[in-house]
Write a sequence for this structure.
């Protein structure tokens, strides 16, 4: 049989390629898409992405927090190309691909507990779903009826139904809490607007008194406590002190609650430690990893559990001790090859220790945004940065909802070749680890330019 001819999808594009009428974009108001159609990206290199007209943009958010080594990294490129010549998919039931097996050891070598077991799935949401199911079944196997979870207000753990039940950002979750399921929520460790009315420099993590209260009232019903260590990402990069994280762990230990650390966004060096929980010197019972795991190339996640949890699932077919969960693309060899290469880069670049100079430079330069009277708070941790905009810095009064200063700033920044994104009234940065000080200075200079011009244009309407 004659082999089919390869189709050419590159080169000059037909007109329908730029017709967006069939696309439903995530996290996008339709009217915004109509008024500002998506920019079609053709290629990338390092910290830059390029559209079909050849315009370059600094990718200051790592394409949704995943491209930790930039775009088209030659090491990861080569790993995927090499695997393409071998096999593209292997079902992970009775079989395992060589890259998936190798990844379990490379990831295991950097885990805080070398005896932890690794369960693969597809993305951050599914890694959380896996964690929740493991915690529920763990208790069931031990004869306990524990069916509820505790999470933190302002938390985000993914968009699947189980993950949304432990998330608490109104615009994302309210409708699903009302119609599906809502778990128990302690206060957010939101230092700029502390729910306990404390100052982060002198507090004793009083915001977690609310967590203690839930444990006191519902201890025997709680299957686990899930949290984003050190930074609540989607609610506006809310950075909180390590003493708060330590108190979360201490309370969970006191009440014998399984800890589930959602390290999907902040793990693998992002906060200046290999894992965000390292800031507290604690090891969670279950940890969720994704995003930067493959360097942003292919979807892959890992739910990592301590051995005492895995032990409860260890039995023969008569015991009923089995975790009946799996995804079609679990442990996909192409994604696993990319992840092996990404972890190789983390090791060879000595991440995160080698980034400390860049991290210090970033923190210092970010403070300059406090010169704007509409900037209420500037927060950084590792390679995470955020600027929270307010109407009145002294009272912390929020901007009018219709002002959309952060959104307009980000749209204006595109005109200057900079990709940044808003989270409500927050402008944030999650740049690739490979960014240089000079590139970072340019990233922040362009942000200053876009922010100043936006504030000047909108001030009269505030």
């Amino acid at each position: 049989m004659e082999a089919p001819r390869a189709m050419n999808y590159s080169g000059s594009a037909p007109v329908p390629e730029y017709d967006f009428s069939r696309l439903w974009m995530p996290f996008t108001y339709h009217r915004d898409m109509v008024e500002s159609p998506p920019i079609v990206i053709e290629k990338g290199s390092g910290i830059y992405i390029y559209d079909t007209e050849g315009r370059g943009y600094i990718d200051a958010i790592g394409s949704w927090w995943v491209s930790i080594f930039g775009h088209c990294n030659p090491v990861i490129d080569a790993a995927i190309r090499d695997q393409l010549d071998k096999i593209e998919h292997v079902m992970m039931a009775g079989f395992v691909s060589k890259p998936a097996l190798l990844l379990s050891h490379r990831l295991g070598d950097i885990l805080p507990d070398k005896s932890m077991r690794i369960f693969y799935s597809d993305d951050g949401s599914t890694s959380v779903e896996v964690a929740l199911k493991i915690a529920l079944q763990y208790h069931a196997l031990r004869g306990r009826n524990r069916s509820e979870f505790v999470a933190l207000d302002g938390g985000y753990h993914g968009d699947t139904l189980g993950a949304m039940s432990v998330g608490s950002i109104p615009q994302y979750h309210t409708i699903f809490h009302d119609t599906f399921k809502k778990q128990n929520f302690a206060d957010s460790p939101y230092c700029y607007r502390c729910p306990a009315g404390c100052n982060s420099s002198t507090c004793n993590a009083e915001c977690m008194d609310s967590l203690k209260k839930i444990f006191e009232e519902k201890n025997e019903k709680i299957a686990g406590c899930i949290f984003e260590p050190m930074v609540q990402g989607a609610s506006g990069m809310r950075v909180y002190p390590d003493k708060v994280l330590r108190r979360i762990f201490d309370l969970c230990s006191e009440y014998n609650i399984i800890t589930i650390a959602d390290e999907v966004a902040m793990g693998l060096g992002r906060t200046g430690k290999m894992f965000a929980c390292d800031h507290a010197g604690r090891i969670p019972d279950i940890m969720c990893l994704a995003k930067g795991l493959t360097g942003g190339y292919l979807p892959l996640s890992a739910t990592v559990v301590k051995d005492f949890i895995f032990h409860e699932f260890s039995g023969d077919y008569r015991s009923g001790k089995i975790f009946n969960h799996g995804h079609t693309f679990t442990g996909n060899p192409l994604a696993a090859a990319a992840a092996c290469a990404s972890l190789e880069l983390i090791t060879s670049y000595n991440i995160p220790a080698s980034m400390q100079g860049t991290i210090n430079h970033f923190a210092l330069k970010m403070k300059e945004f406090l010169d704007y009277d509409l900037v209420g708070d500037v927060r950084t941790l590792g390679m995470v940065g955020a600027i929270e905009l307010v109407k009145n810095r002294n009272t912390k009064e929020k901007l009018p909802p219709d002002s959309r200063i952060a959104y307009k700033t980000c749209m204006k920044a595109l005109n200057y070749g900079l990709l940044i994104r808003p989270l409500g009234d927050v402008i944030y940065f999650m740049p690739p680890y490979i960014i240089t000080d000079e590139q970072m200075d340019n990233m922040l200079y362009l942000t200053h330019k876009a922010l100043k011009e936006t504030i000047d244009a909108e001030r009269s309407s505030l």
About this structure: The chain has a mean pLDDT of 95.
